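Attaching the record inline, Q. Sequence:
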Amino acid sequence: MINEYLNYLRNIRGLSENTTMGYEKDLHKFLKWIRANHQDARWSTITRTHLDQFITELAEEGLKPASTNRILSAISGLYGYMKRQGLDVENPAKFESRRKVAKALPNTIPVEDLRRAYDHTTGAVHTMIGLLVTTGIRIQELLDLNWEDIDFKDHSLKIFGKGAKGRVVYTTPEVLSDLAIVKNQLHPSGRMFWFDQRTARHMLWEVLKDFSQAPQLSPHAIRHTMATNMAKRGANVVMIGTILGHEHLKTTQKYIDMAQVETRQACQQYTMFN
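Structure, as predicted:
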C-alpha cells in the first residue's frame, strides 16, 4: 500500500522526488515499528493508542518535533489515500496532536554577496545566479526551463512547479542578456541547462563560498533571500506567494516575519542612543 501511495504522490500529485522519498522514509519507519511491536496489526486495526506509543518512543529517542510532525503528516496522508480507495480504515493520526515547533526563520544570503558572485562569474553559473536571485524559482524549476518558456519581449518565464502548476515570473533585461551565452550550448532537448540538480547545486556552492560566509549557500537560500527582500520592500504576502508558487499563504508568512525581524534589528543597531 505504501508503494501505491508513493506512486500517487509522484504521478498524480506531482510531488518532487526528494519530497516523495521523505514520505517513503517516514512511512517505512512507522511500518518497521508496527512490525516490531504489534506483529498482528494491520492498517485497518492500527489505532491512536498505537500511534501514541510510537510518538512517545520517537520523543524518547530525541527526534525533533518538526520531524515527528512530518511523520504524522505522512501517516495521515497515507490513510487519507486508503479511504479514497474505498478501504475500510480509520485514520489514527486524524486527532493526534502535533508537537509544538519553534518558528524557524529562513536562511538567507546577504544581497551584496549575491551581487558580487553574479558580477564575478560567467557562463552557466552566472546565468543561474541571475535567474535564481531575480525570480526566486526553485532549483529544479530552473533546470526544467526550456528556451520556449522565455519571452524576451516582456522579460517573463513560464514556470511549471510542484503539482505541475504553472505560473509566470519576471526577470530583468540584464539577466536575459546573459542568456545568449548559454544558448550557444543549447541542449538537444531544448533545455536551457544540461546538468542535473546535484551538479547545479555543487556548481553554485563552489562559487558562492568565495563570496559569502552565510551558513547556507544553497539555491533555496537564494530563494529565501529574494522573498525576504521583497517583503522588506513592501510586497504583501499574496504577491510573494504568487511569485514563489506557494499553495498556502501560511508558507509565505515566514518571509514577512523575517523582514520584520531584520527591520527591528536595524532600528536597534542604528539608533542614535547606541
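The CA atoms of residues 8 and 85 lie 11 Å apart. The chain has a mean pLDDT of 84.

More tomorrow.
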